[in-house]
Write a structure and sequence with these properties.
Strand order of the largest sheet: 1-2-3
Structural class: mainly alpha
Order of helices and strands: HHHHHHHHHHHEEEH
CATH architecture of the largest domain: Orthogonal Bundle
Number of domains: 2
Low-confidence stretches: 1-5
Number of helices: 12
Shape: globular
Helix content: 55-70%
Number of strands: 3
CATH class of the largest domain: Mainly Alpha
Mean pLDDT: 85
């Protein structure tokens, strides 16, 4: 029988050189599918989606999720573009492109990966694991894209479209409502360069608590003004909080004076 254009590609372990999946791993992957209400025909391709290159580097095998991530990135982009095109009929191409770039950013994709508990399924080398690989945004975002690529190969575009839409549509709404994650340190640096060609300077004011439960206070000086303190469970999050205060203050002042809105 001739395969139709909409039919998913035929999979085989030989075609993709998929590593065998042991009994305990099968249980984990089955539970993962159940939690997401999806079903793979091949547990091997699903397992490959979580296999970081550090594992193949360590074992000498060629099996890792990089090719699936490459494919999934394109599938995710196509689905997101389609959803934006259908949902936002009044937006220009430039506006759609800006929204898409935020929706499929590493910050948002890694957050989705954590919500789906992909961090628990990652297969990492011992060195990558000890260096905190399960929490690295790049690894998480890549694994999510690899999962999308694997599901597309296993079940076809229609199934992948429905799956991706479930978690991308809410992110589109958050971006439109301006409730998405924003890297305020980068925004503040760009804005301060625009204003007076200087860089923000962060100062750690205080930290308290035991090693496992620290709390940090940070202030930032920019454009001749000091803002903060921002607080957080680690220095990075406290700096982000201080940067947010400074950026919103400077942006509001700039907006009042110029009539231009610099907020993205």
């Amino acid at each position: 029988m001739k395969e139709t254009a909409s039919a998913p590609p035929t999979l085989s372990y030989r075609q993709y050189n998929l590593p065998a999946v042991d009994r305990e791993r099968k249980k984990v992957l089955t539970a993962f599918q159940k939690s997401l209400a999806i079903k793979f025909k091949s547990l091997g391709i699903l397992n490959l989606a979580f296999m970081h290159r550090s594992v193949s580097n360590e074992s000498g095998s060629k099996a890792n999720n990089e090719r699936l991530e490459f494919l999934g990135d394109s599938i995710l982009g196509a689905i997101t573009a389609t959803l934006l095109y259908e949902k936002l009929a009044d937006r220009t191409e430039g506006e759609l492109a800006k929204i898409k770039s935020v929706v499929v950013s590493e910050d948002i994709l890694s957050g989705i990966a954590r919500e789906l508990q992909i961090d628990r399924l990652l297969l990492l080398s011992k060195g990558e694991y000890l260096s905190g690989g399960r929490n690295k945004k790049t690894i998480l975002a890549d694994a999510l894209e690899a999962l999308i690529g694997a599901f597309y190969l296993d079940s076809g575009y229609k199934a992948a479209y429905a799956f991706v839409g479930r978690f991308i549509l809410p992110e589109i709404t958050r971006v439109l409502d301006n409730r998405h994650y924003r890297d305020y340190k980068s925004l503040l640096q760009e804005f301060s360069q625009r204003l007076d060609r200087t860089y923000p300077a962060y100062t750690l004011l205080q930290r308290s608590g035991p090693e496992h439960d620290r709390f940090f206070w940070v202030e930032v000086r920019v454009n001749g003004q000091t803002c903060g303190p921002g607080t957080g469970r680690n220095k990075k999050s406290a700096e982000q909080a201080a940067a947010k205060m400074a950026y919103e203050h400077l942006a509001s002042v700039y907006f009042t004076k110029s009539g231009e809105n610099p907020l993205p």
